[in-house]
Structure formats: C-alpha cells, structure tokens
C-alpha cells in the first residue's frame, strides 16, 4: 500500500514537472512584450562637470554629445550587417564576421595584449545564444528578439557598427556622465535598488523565468514603469533619459587602456549582482571577446537639428 | 552573584573560555552578516535583517563596510591563535594574562565599534574606537613577541626530540616568534596605508584592481597586507596544530627550519612588493615552497602518529593498509586538521599556482569578473579552511567524545570540503563549460556550496548551543575548564608557571 502511494506521488511529481517544462517552452515562443520605447532615439548630453566614480572625483566633458537612449538591438545590428557586408566594410570567413582594425601601439608591458593590424572577429554566427541569423544572403534578427540588445559581439564588432554610421563608442567619461547626471547617485535612477529596476542576476523578470539567467535579455527600455503580465517594472532612466544604463547586458566603451589594451565594459548585466550595477562598476576583456551578456550603445557628435534646439 | 563572576572569569580569563567567547562572537557575526549576501538576498532575508537592525547600507560604501567586517572577524581569529599560543608555548603566567587581556579588550572593541561605524551610520567616534581596538591588538602582539623571545636560556630545549640549535635554542619557539614579528610588521604595512585614508588613499577591494597596470604604492601595500596576514594566520595555526599533536622527531627537526626560513622569506617578499613589484613574487613563491614543505612534514608525522596510536589502542602491533586507513579515519577531529591542510592544496595552492602559470594564456583572456571570482573564491576558501581547523581543535579541547565527536568532525570535514570544492569548480567553470551551457554547473555548485556551508553552520550552532546551555549549569563543563584552563599539550621546554618549575629547569 505504502509502495503504491509512493509511486502515485512520484508519477504526479514527474507529470507536474513535465507540464511546467512544456509551459516554459511555449512561453519561449510567445514571449514578446512591447515596451513602447524607440531604440532609434538619441539623447543630447550637454557639456559640463559631473562626479566620476565611487569616490566622486570632479570630472568634466567640455562638449555636447549625443548618446543612444538604449542598447543597439538585434534588428539594428542585423540591418547594419546587411549593408556592411554588401559594401565590403566587413567580410565573412566561414561563419565568422571579420573586419579590419589598424592595431594598437604595443608597449611591451607585462600582461599586455598584442593587438596587431589585421582582420579581427566581430561576431561568430554559429555560436549558441546568438540572435542574429544568416541565410547565405541576408541577415535578420531571431523572431521575438528583434528589440533585445545585440549580444555576442566583440569590441571590434561594436566599433565597426559605430564607424559604419560615422558614430563612435562612448568614452568612459561620456558613458558615466550620461548615466549619472550631475549628482552622486549610485544607480542611474537614484540610490534605491530592487529587482523592479533592472535585469540582473536573479531579477526574476519574465524573460529570466522563461529562458534562464544567462539567456534572459529583456527588450531595450523594458524597465520603464510599465507592468507586463503582472511583472511591475520601475522607470530606470538616467537623469538624461537613457534606459538600461544598469543591467541587461554590459556595454563596450571606446577607450583603449594603454599598457594593457583591455577594452572596458560598463553598466553590469543580467549575470551580475547588484553591486556591479552601480554606475562605477566595470568589467574588461580583450577586444575580441564576445559573450551572452555583452552589447553596446553608440555616441556621436551633436547633429544639426539638436544644435538648433 | 558569585557564580556570574565565575562564568565571567571563565569566559574572559581562562584560555578555554576566551577561545569559546571569540568563536561565539565570530559565529554571531557570521549568522547575522551572512544574511546580507548570497542566497539570503534572493530570499529577501537581507531586507528583514536591515529593517530589524536598522542598518544603513549606502551603496557607495559597500567596499568600506566589507573591509571593516573582514577586519573585525580577522582580529577575533588572531585573538584565538594568540590564546592558543600563550597556552601552549612556555612563558611566564603574568605575560600570558597580560597578553590575553589586552587582545581581548582590543578585538572586542574593534569588533563592536567597527561594525557599529560601518553598518549603523558613520559615527566617527566609533571609527576612532575601532582604531583603538586594533591598536590594542597590535600592542598585545608586541607583548607576545617579547614573551616568545627565544634566546632566553630558561626556554632552551631539554628534550632533544624537539628541533633546536646546538646551543639548545627551541626552533619551534623561533618559528612562533618569527610569525609574530612578521605579523606585526605586516600589520604596520596595512596600518600605514590606512592612515592615509581620506588623504590620498581611497577604499578599494584588492580583487577590483587586479587589471590596473600601474598600481599606486598605497594600493600595492594593501594588496601585500591582506595576502601576508592571511598567510601568517595559516602559518600560526599550522604551528599550533603541530604542538597539539606533539610534533617531534626527525620530521620536526626538518620542518621547523623550513617554516622559519619560509616565513621570513615570504614576509620580506610581500613587503618588497611596493618597491620591487616585479621581483617580489619570486621571493613569495620560494617562501611558500619552504612553508608548505614544512607543513607536509607535519601531515606525514601527524597521520603516522594517529595510525600508530589507534592501532596501539586496539592492541594491533602491525596493521595492513586497510587497518591503517581505518585507524587514520577513526577520529575525524584529529584527522581533520591535517586533511584540511592537504585539501587546501587542491582548492587554494593548486588553483593559485595554476592561475599564476596560466595567467596570460587563460585568465586574462576571460572577462575581468571571471578572473575576479577565482581570486575571491580562492582566498575565501583559505579563510574557511583555517576556521574549520580551529573549530576541530576546539572540539577536541571541549572534550567531544564518541558519536558526537564523529558527527561533529565528519560534518565539518565533509560539509566544508563539499562547499570548497564546489566553489573551486564554480570559479574555474569557464575552463570546461561555455557561457551558454554554464547554468546547470552554476546552479549545482551553488546548491552544493550552500548545503555544505549550511551543514557546517548547523553543526556549529548545535555545538555552541550546547556550550551556551552548559554555562547555566552550576557544575557544567565550563567549571571543569575553569579549574583546568590551559590546553593539554606536551611543551617543548619547561613551563615557568608550573609548580615543578624549579625541578624542570635543573
């Protein structure tokens, strides 16, 4: 009798788990949420002083500049690849997209990366987790991930995107000023933190629940105060109005650090704890590194219409 | 009223009571502050602790808080080691009393006011008291070094089984002395930098600046300080465990010079990080090899002794392989400390050497945060291993017997080793799994880490609960320990406060 009872319980448990899994798979197909945020928007950041880093050092960016309101999305990056490949700006070798880079000056320093002139990897299309697809002639963004930040892109790939359109990757100073504004806040939205503000390690957002921590990017601008199927977000915009300057995926910045040539990433990601989401939090890797939690946004000089404003 | 006074005497004046008090204080801090990180955050426990205790966790001050927390725990661990040393190394009674009193007031002051300052609003009076506490701990260290001075004739070795010079200078005492002096110098190394806080020195965690190509002298000093202090704490506990097991004979004679030389070389190597960063590591590696070889001698001696003692107890003259292994594993409390030293080679030294050898090829190719995890994992494990060794020795001091002794010992060994091995696998995961496929490894290693640590903490809580309950008994264990407060070890030279002192020194 006892044995039979155990079998029933075991069967029921397996059934429930299977149903849960099936629900999860279905959820993956259907998980599309409209944030209402325009990924093509640029934000004007006025010249001025600000407080840099954890210890609030006085710093200044003495020119106006513009920066993207959100990360570059998969759809945007796929669109760029179509144009860049057609024009010969990048080339494909097997499944790898490569582009030319003139190299970094080598100082012979201990632990220094040697970045020589040549063709460097931008993206490897057969890597797992990538949302950019290619049919031999055309690139497109995987369905459901069009407005998610592009990932698995190296620093070379990010820089190439910016260069193609005549833009640039933001410098660390530009990035930090855009994230912090003029006060000493720890996060782009202020000093308080809870999981409604950003996509970070165990933020329990619907995408994390559906795809798992490492694959659960959220659409750009997801944390804007809206409630999505019961999941309430808070508005995480920086004082200038940039979304996701903390969390979702790391953002490559443009600076080449002399003596090491690591490239730095800012903003924390879906895989980091909240302390790495603080404005001064940083990560670094070689410029050819790409990961599931690394993307970028671009900066540019002020365009004419903004100058007029 | 008298009984309260006796309990006070036990907890704050006797070696065994002082060790218990310090372990209880560290456990209390671990229990409360442990809720501020890890899975406790995800489960919402941190918010409850913060609200209940009225903590003020300013995001920008996180690193400062952590540094103060580390220091308060480290002070208490150093105090425990000092209590051990003053009890097992021959010295005058008044010296022992004075050293123990100073370090007790010191670490408690540093602990209470340090945490008060760091976590409950920045009252700078408390910061001042934190510094007073640390200064007292340092002062106790100076007194300890004086008491350990090995070139006094009354401390010369009489029993030639113990390592000594031709003149009779006790080399184990020299090893303790060298460790104490090295620790004092290394404390200054950190304290001088700390004194620049706010005027040139900014709070940082060592692991956060590993990729900074040009570190300032103050940053280098801090990195050196934290490494050498942990190393010296490990050396000290190795020497203490050696005395507990009555380390002697030829292996003792080989080990002591190695440990002395290694301690001096590694300390000077670390101190030289500031002016000669490029060559300092060579000295550090050389020193490490000497110390670790010395520790290996202790492990060989200790395990042989454990096997022989157990076989003798069973009346077996010569045991085969199986019987010897059974004898070795019979008492986890005696086997454990030496096993943890061996285990350390897989999870700390091995990882450290691999990291150093493959730094440019592997670890610097990884993102910074991945490299950072290997570093923090590696030294958290070393701290944890030291803690388990202390706990096993203290379980023996408390006289745990029979099944309780076995349960306590094996839970401590298995629980902690599962946790430490899991952390090691977690930190090195990028070697064998891609980011895309890492989640099952992350989840399993995290679960095993949490389960291992939970097992250790539960058994420790039960143990401390028993010791707390015992304090309310009029004829409890504490009373016996009060009447026999010193640690039961064979000393390398005569005991000055022994009733038979005159006879022993003849």
For the largest beta-sheet of chain A, the strand count, sense and barrel status come to:
4 strands, mixed
Tally the beta strands of chain B: 0
Instruction: Tell me the helix content of chain B.
Output: over 70%
The gross shape of chain B turns out to be globular
Low-confidence stretches of chain B: none
Q: What portion of residues of chain B belong to β-strands? A: under 5%
Question: Any idea what the shape of chain A is?
Answer: globular
Largest chain interface and its two residue counts?
A: A-B, 40 and 28 residues
Largest sheet of chain B: none
| Quaternary organisation | heterodimer
Total of domains of chain A: 1
Please describe the topology of this protein.
The complex is a heterodimer of chains A (309) and B (506).
Chain A (H helix, E strand, L loop, with lengths): L1 H29 L11 E4 L2 E5 L4 E5 L3 E4 L5 H14 L3 E3 L2 E6 L16 E7 L7 E3 L4 E3 L13 H10 L7 H9 L25 H6 L15 E2 L2 E2 L17 E7 L6 E4 L15 E4 L8 E2 L3 E3 L2 H5 L1
Parallel strand pairs in A: 12-15
Antiparallel strand pairs in A: 1-4, 2-3, 4-16, 5-6, 6-7, 8-9, 10-11, 12-13, 13-14
Chain B lengths: L1 H12 L1 H19 L5 H4 L2 H9 L8 H27 L4 H27 L4 H25 L22 H24 L22 H28 L5 H22 L5 H37 L7 H9 L2 H26 L1 H5 L4 H30 L4 H26 L11 H33 L5 H7 L17 H5 L1
């Amino acid at each position: 009798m006892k044995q039979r009872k155990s079998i029933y319980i075991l069967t029921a448990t397996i059934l429930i788990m299977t149903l849960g899994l099936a629900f999860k798979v279905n959820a993956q197909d259907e998980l599309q949420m409209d944030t209402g945020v325009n990924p093509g928007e640029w934000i004007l950041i006025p010249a001025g002083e600000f407080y840099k880093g954890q210890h609030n050092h006085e710093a200044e960016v003495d020119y106006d500049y513009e920066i993207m309101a959100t990360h570059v999305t998969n759809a945007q990056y796929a669109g760029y690849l179509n144009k860049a490949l057609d024009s010969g700006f990048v080339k494909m070798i097997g499944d790898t997209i490569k582009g030319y880079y003139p190299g970094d000056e080598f100082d012979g320093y201990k632990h220094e990366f040697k970045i020589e002139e040549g063709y460097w990897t931008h993206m490897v299309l057969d890597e797992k987790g990538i949302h950019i697809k290619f049919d031999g002639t055309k690139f497109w963004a995987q369905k459901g991930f069009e407005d998610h930040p592009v990932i698995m892109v190296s620093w070379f790939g990010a820089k190439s995107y910016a260069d193609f359109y005549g833009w640039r990757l933001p410098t660390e100073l530009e990035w930090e000023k855009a994230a912090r504004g003029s006060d000493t806040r720890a996060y782009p939205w202020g000093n308080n933190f809870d999981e409604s503000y950003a996509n970070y390690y165990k933020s329990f957002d619907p995408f994390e629940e559906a795809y798992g921590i490492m694959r659960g990017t959220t659409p750009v601008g997801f944390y804007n105060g809206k409630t999505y199927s019961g999941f309430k977000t808070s508005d995480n915009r920086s004082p200038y109005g940039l979304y996701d300057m903390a969390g979702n995926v790391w953002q490559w910045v443009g600076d080449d650090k002399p003596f090491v040539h690591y490239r730095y990433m800012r903003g924390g990601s879906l895989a980091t704890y909240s302390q790495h989401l603080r404005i001064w939090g940083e990560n670094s890797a070689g410029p050819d590194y790409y990961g599931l939690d690394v993307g970028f946004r671009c900066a540019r000089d002020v365009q004419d219409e903004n100058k007029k404003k | 009223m008298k009984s309260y006074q006796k309990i006070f005497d036990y907890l704050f004046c006797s070696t065994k009571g002082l060790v218990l008090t310090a372990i209880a204080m560290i456990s209390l801090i671990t229990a409360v502050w442990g809720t501020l990180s890890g899975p406790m955050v995800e489960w919402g426990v941190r918010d409850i602790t913060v609200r209940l205790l009225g903590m003020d966790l300013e995001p920008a001050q996180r690193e400062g808080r952590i540094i103060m927390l580390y220091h308060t725990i480290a002070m208490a661990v150093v105090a425990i080691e000092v209590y051990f040393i003053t009890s097992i190394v021959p010295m005058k009674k008044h010296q022992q009393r004075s050293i123990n009193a100073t370090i007790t007031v010191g670490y408690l002051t540093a602990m209470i006011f340090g945490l008060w300052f760091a976590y409950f609003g920045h009252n700078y009076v408390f910061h001042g008291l934190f510094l007073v506490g640390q200064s007292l701990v340092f002062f106790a260290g100076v007194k300890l070094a004086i008491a350990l001075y090995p070139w006094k004739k009354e401390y010369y070795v009489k029993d030639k089984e113990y390592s000594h010079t031709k003149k009779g200078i006790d080399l184990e005492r020299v090893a303790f002395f060298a460790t104490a002096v090295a620790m004092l110098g290394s404390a200054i190394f950190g304290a001088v930098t700390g004194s620049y806080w706010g005027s040139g020195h900014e709070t940082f965690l060592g692991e956060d600046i590993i990729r900074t190509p040009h570190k300032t002298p103050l940053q280098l000093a801090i990195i050196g300080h934290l490494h050498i202090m942990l190393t010296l704490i490990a050396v000290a506990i190795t020497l203490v465990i050696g005395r507990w097991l009555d380390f002697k004979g030829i292996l003792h004679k080989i080990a002591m010079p190695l440990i002395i030389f290694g301690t001096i070389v590694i300390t000077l190597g670390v101190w030289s990080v500031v002016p000669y960063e490029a060559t300092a590591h060579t000295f550090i590696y050389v020193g490490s090899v000497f110390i670790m070889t010395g520790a290996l001698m202790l492990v060989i001696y200790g395990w042989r002794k454990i096997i022989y003692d157990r076989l003798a107890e069973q009346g077996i003259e010569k045991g085969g392989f199986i019987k010897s292994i059974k004898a070795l594993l019979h008492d986890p409390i005696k086997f454990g400390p030496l096993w943890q030293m061996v285990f350390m080679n897989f999870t700390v030294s091995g990882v450290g050497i691999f990291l150093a050898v493959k730094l440019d090829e592997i670890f610097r190719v990884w993102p910074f945060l991945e490299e950072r995890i290997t570093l923090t994992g590696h030294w958290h494990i070393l701290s944890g291993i030291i803690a388990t060794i202390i706990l096993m020795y203290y379980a023996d001091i408390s006289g745990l017997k029979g099944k309780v002794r076995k349960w306590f010992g094996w839970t401590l060994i298995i629980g902690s080793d599962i946790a430490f091995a899991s952390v090691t696998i977690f930190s090195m995961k990028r070697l064998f799994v891609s980011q895309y496929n890492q989640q099952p490894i992350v989840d399993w290693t995290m679960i095993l880490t949490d389960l291992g640590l939970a097992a250790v903490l539960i058994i420790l809580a039960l143990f401390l609960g028993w010791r707390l309950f015992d304090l309310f008994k009029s004829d409890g264990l504490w009373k016996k320990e009060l009447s026999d407060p010193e640690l039961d070890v064979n000393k390398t030279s005569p005991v000055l406060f022994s009733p038979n002192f005159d006879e022993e020194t003849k």
